[in-house]
Design goal:
It is built from eleven helices and 14 strands. By secondary structure, it is α/β, with parallel strands linked by helices. Helix 1 packs across helix 8, helix 3 runs parallel beside helix 5 and helix 5 packs parallel to helix 6.
Length: 337
């Protein structure tokens, strides 16, 4: 059985379905601090077995020991962490306690129960300002926020554990900009409060929850002057975690890979694609650049394809169509019901 932490979150819930589709049994763990119990009902409606779920904080060692004692856990896919860059700047100690402390508790519980295989959800923000494009895994690491620092600490901690004990098998997945939703429109991204990413803002304008989209900067050295990013469909991302898990379970070595499309998409390109998908206009207002933003940022995903046989298959139109299907059916997210 696979322990999935952060199981009812945006990426975790889609990965639960991907693991289920791959024939793997999942034990889910989440404290609902940034998700909703409604996700479990919807996962069940999509065919997942949610009977093996524990409501708990990943930093609660006693709860983790109970989970490992109750179910035969052979590997872990670890998502449970806070991820808002701006919030991490305002509350750095909270992020270190939650993200690093949670991983320490999890790794200690794994070790105590003889489970030493983990797929770790990391982030492309560990690279900081890119020196060249596309960004490869051997690029310099320069995290520029407490959130990114917590992820790099997590990577290093797991690699140190592996160096001390060769039985550990670790897959670190650094991914870029997850977007989209399950093709059914049943589950999707439901940010609490002000979104931290572009796509939810665009979708909320289209559904009428916001009057217009603020575009930060239109004078970058890009084709249309707006920032360029590597947007990756969340279902492709979920399948990347399954591929990484299979890689480790097959006896192959530990790895660190980027998950992205390898193609940059500008803000205005994404807006136009969403207008096509929704049939609605997305009014935009140009605002000054934000401090720290870069003109372009996208992955070199070749290593993931070579080592995992994984490649993103869903294009921008699919990302926008699936996001719109989710947003239109659930204008208030999981609070719609």
């Amino acid at each position: 059985m696979i322990l999935l932490t952060g199981a009812t979150g945006y990426i975790g819930s889609h990965t639960w379905l991907a693991l289920h589709a791959a024939g793997m049994r999942v034990a889910g763990l989440d404290d609902f601090s940034n998700s909703s119990p409604e996700v479990l009902r919807r996962l069940a409606a999509l065919g997942a077995d949610v009977s093996t779920f524990a409501e708990a904080d990943v930093g609660d060692r006693a709860a983790l020991d109970a989970v490992f004692g109750r179910w035969q856990i052979e590997a872990v896919v670890h998502f449970a962490a806070w991820k808002a860059v701006g919030d991490s700047v305002a509350r750095p100690l909270d992020y270190y306690r939650n993200n690093v402390g949670g991983l320490i508790a999890l790794a200690e519980a794994m070790q105590a129960h003889g489970c030493k295989t983990i797929v770790f959800s990391s982030t492309a923000t560990v690279y900081g300002q890119p020196r060249s494009l596309p960004v490869r895994e051997d690029a310099a690491l320069a995290p520029s926020s407490p959130y990114a620092e917590t992820k790099l600490i997590g990577e290093n901690m797991l690699h140190d554990a592996e160096r001390a004990d060769a039985a550990w098998r670790v897959a670190v997945l650094r991914y870029f900009n997850p977007v989209g939703a399950h093709a059914s429109g049943t589950i999707g991204e439901d940010p609490r409060g002000t979104p931290n990413n572009l796509m939810p803002f665009v979708a909320q304008v289209a559904v009428g929850k916001r009057a217009k989209l603020r575009v930060f900067g239109n004078d970058y050295d890009t084709a249309d002057g707006t920032g360029v990013r590597d947007y990756l469909h969340v279902e492709d991302l979920a399948e990347g975690h399954v591929a990484a898990l299979r890689h480790l379970q097959g006896g192959a070595g530990s790895l660190t890979v980027n998950l992205g499309t390898g193609h940059g998409v500008s803000v205005l390109e994404l807006v136009r694609a969403f207008e096509r998908a929704s049939g609605r206009a997305i009014p935009c207002e140009i605002a000054p650049r934000r401090a720290g933003d870069v003109a372009a940022y996208y992955a070199d995903p070749a290593l993931a394809e070579r080592l995992l046989g994984w490649k993103a298959t869903r294009d921008l139109d699919a990302m926008c169509a699936d996001s719109w299907r989710w947003q239109a059916a659930n204008p208030d997210g999981y609070a719609t019901v």
